[in-house]
Specification:
Shape: rod-shaped
Distance between the termini: 78 Å
Strand content: over 45%
Structural class: mainly beta
Helix content: under 10%
Number of helices: 0
């Protein structure tokens, strides 16, 4: 049973079942339907229409069972570029990206869209400090101090007197 490898163009996906299947344009005048898409464990996507990848086909010429598979599928206009060796990015076609940049840390770029993190408990841990910025407001948390409105403010007054750990700029 011989095989062939050829370029395909994504038309649509069915992402409801156990495995994503695609409709693809293959060779000239060829439309392939219900083609299983091979994906990596831990990462799934539904590529934009017009994405390109590789089709793999075995059998069919002599009446034997025809087996098709789609490998990859990349949307050139959406793909982040200039990654260094060892870096990776999870991205979509709207400009959102989470970048794993090795020594430069992990960056999430939401292109000015709202973000949501949910869970029973949310924990953010920094070894030196955690800084939260919203507009002109900054909250900085270090091991023994919380600064509201920026670092270097005055102690916050509590019912028991001036706080020794919470400070605010007026």
């Amino acid at each position: 049973m011989g095989g062939r490898l050829f370029r395909v163009e994504h038309v649509e996906a069915d992402d409801e079942g156990d495995q994503q299947t695609l409709t693809l344009y293959g060779l000239p005048n060829e439309t392939l339907k219900k083609v299983p898409r091979v994906q990596h464990f831990g990462l799934t996507s539904n590529p934009p229409v017009g994405s390109h990848g590789m089709g793999l086909q075995f059998g069919g010429q002599d009446g034997s069972r025809l087996l098709n598979a789609a490998l990859g599928l990349e949307h050139a206009a959406s793909r982040p570029r200039k990654l260094k060796p060892g870096q990776s990015t999870i991205y979509d076609d709207k400009g959102n990206a989470t970048r794993y940049l090795g020594d430069d840390g992990i960056w999430h770029d939401a292109k000015d869209r709202p973000q949501k993190m949910t869970g029973k408990t949310i924990e953010i841990t920094g070894t030196d400090k955690v800084v939260v910025k919203v507009g002109n407001m900054t909250v900085t948390v270090t091991a023994n101090r919380v600064d509201l409105g920026g670092e270097g403010g005055s102690p916050v007054m509590t019912q028991a007197g001036a706080s020794s750990v919470v400070f605010a700029k007026v």
